[in-house]
């Protein structure tokens, strides 16, 4: 499979602070990326996506940044809440329909 | 968002038996579905791509005779773990991709082989 990795396996933030989760991808041909949130014992939940013709996309409290030059993605969560505690994965789509996942970052929000 | 339903959510089976997991797209048609496997505290590993009306495409290292995939309709794909052994115990997750691009996941199936 493709190599999609995350810089930090764990991240702890204070409630109300902003969180930044990073991801490096290896295939420069990837043109579509998705961030997922996974809570314990559940399937991944779609958060936000971005195509390679964009470098930034905003959702509700979340922003994804894409730097194709260095093959880097980040997910920014504003005003992090306890309910944001989960594992976050980036996934890339290099070809066809398949998505390949990074190793995941475990986010813990401290009340 | 789109809904993908997976059943069962948990299953315990005896070693040597087979287990079938269903994945349904509830509000859209999916010509392609995907099956992933996830070990504790690990990422999702793509096992195979399930194609409606044709054979599944397996990732390198995945035994196709062990993990049988059937995609008989545009809303249903099944994964059968044949002759299950304890090392097959894992969290299995399916997903389906919309034509607009996003991929949505089922709730996952926790398989325990005893």
Question: In terms of topology, how is this protein built?
Answer:
The complex is a heterodimer of chains A (111) and B (114).
Chain A: E1 4-5, E2 10-14, E3 19-25, E4 32-38, E5 45-51, E6 56-58, E7 62-67, E8 72-77, E9 86-93, E10 100-101, E11 105-110
Parallel strand pairs in A: 2-11
Antiparallel strand pairs in A: 1-3, 3-8, 4-5, 4-9, 6-7, 7-8, 9-10, 9-11
Chain B: E1 4-7, E2 10-13, E3 19-25, E4 32-38, E5 44-51, E6 57-58, E7 67-73, E8 76-81, E9 90-97, E10 103-105, E11 109-113
Parallel strand pairs in B: 2-11
Antiparallel strand pairs in B: 1-3, 3-8, 4-5, 4-9, 5-6, 7-8, 9-10, 9-11
Task: Please give a structural write-up.
The complex is a heterodimer of chains A (about 110) and B (about 110). Chain A is built from no helices and eleven strands. With about 110 residues, chain A is mainly β. Chain B is built from no helices and eleven strands. In chain B, a hairpin with a 5-residue loop joins strand 9 and strand 10. In chain B, the strands form two sheets. In chain B, strands 2, 4, 5, 6, 9, 10 and 11 form a seven-stranded mixed sheet that branches. A four-stranded antiparallel sheet of chain B has the order 1-3-8-7, with no helix packed on it. Chains A and B meet through strand 4, strand 5 and strand 10 of A and strand 4, strand 5, strand 9 and strand 10 of B.
